[in-house]
Amino acid sequence: MSDPLTSLDPPAPDFARMRPVAPLVTIGIPAYNRPHLLRETLASLAAQQNFADFEVVVCDDGELADTRLAVEQCGLSSIRYYVNQIGRASCRERV
């Protein structure tokens, strides 16, 4: 087990909602300084009524406060948000 003080993974944000059972579909969204597009994407996913067995993983490379705010306010029940550290791959490692 790795030491939490030296771990490369940041702690999960307080609004990360983990499901007890893995979903059928995972949607990975890389985000980089375009929170208005992320809001549209998340709103579209939240409006889905025919399929609900999915989770969303947002990987932020830009660290804009508006990007985090878009995730916090999206209303999805199963979403995870990560801020990538410099030199790490984006969604590939998180999904």
Overview of this structure, please?
The chain has 95 residues and is α/β, with parallel strands linked by helices. The chain has one domain (26-94). It contains three helices and three strands. The protein has a three-stranded parallel sheet with strand order 1-2-3. Mean pLDDT is 78; it is low at 1-7.
Quick structural overview:
It is built from three helices and three strands; from the N terminus they run E-H-E-H-E-H.
Describe the secondary structure blueprint for this structure.
Elements: E1 25-31, H1 35-46, E2 54-60, H2 65-72, E3 79-83, H3 91-94
Parallel strand pairs: 1-2, 2-3
What attributes characterize this protein structure?
95 residues; alpha/beta; 3-stranded parallel sheet; 3 helices; 20% strand; globular; disordered N terminus
Instruction: Please give the domain count.
Output: 1
What is the residue-averaged pLDDT? Answer: 78
Our estimate of the beta-strand percent is: 15-25%
- Described by the principal axes of the CA atoms, the overall outline is globular
Q: pLDDT below 50 for ≥5 consecutive residues: which ranges?
A: 1-7
Please tally the helical runs, counting DSSP H or I stretches of 4 or more residues: 3
State the helicity in percent bands: 25-40%
* Topology, number of strands: 3
User: Can you write the helix and strand succession as a string?
Assistant: EHEHEH
- Tell me the structural class: alpha/beta
Largest sheet data: 3 strands, parallel
Termini separation: 21 Å
Give the C-alpha Rg: 14 Å
Major sheet: arrangement of strands? 1-2-3
